[in-house]
Design brief:
Blueprint lengths: L2 H16 L6 E6 L2 E6 L2 E6 H4 L3 E7 L3 E7 L6 E8 L3 H15 L1 E8 L9 H14 L6 E5 L7
Parallel strand pairs: 4-7, 7-8
Antiparallel strand pairs: 1-2, 2-3, 4-5, 5-6
Length: 152
Amino acid sequence: MTLAATASIWSFRFLRLISASSKYFSASTDDNLSSMSLMGTSTCFDKNLYQVMRYLGLDLGTKTLGIAISDALGLIANPMKTIRYTTYEELSLEIASLIKEYEIGGIALGLPKNMDNSMGFASQRSIEFKEFLSKHVDVPIKLIDERLSSVE
């Protein structure tokens, strides 16, 4: 698959998963904090931080990482690039650089579950990468179920 095709597919997935659709997000305010819930997982952000924040969408493969970035409101995603990698360390450095450069407020990492809801090798790889990355970056990372998110 070409870089453009991979980026387009991930952009569509990211748009579906990170958009402010009530299926995935709900928000409520309480004094100075706002609580954003993503597929049943709550995270608290300062109101002023999450209102104008970009998000990264990551699609982890065995040799490449597809990256999409949202607009400042977190509503529209655009393909950014695909990185070839050999170690998670080099990926974490690149992602940390993007977080700083674009002032990223959160990361959506694809979780490729099987249709029967079981976790295969690819799912385990995403979970392990999330655990690794969370030790190297200081933004929330959410695993997003990728089932039925591809357009063919």
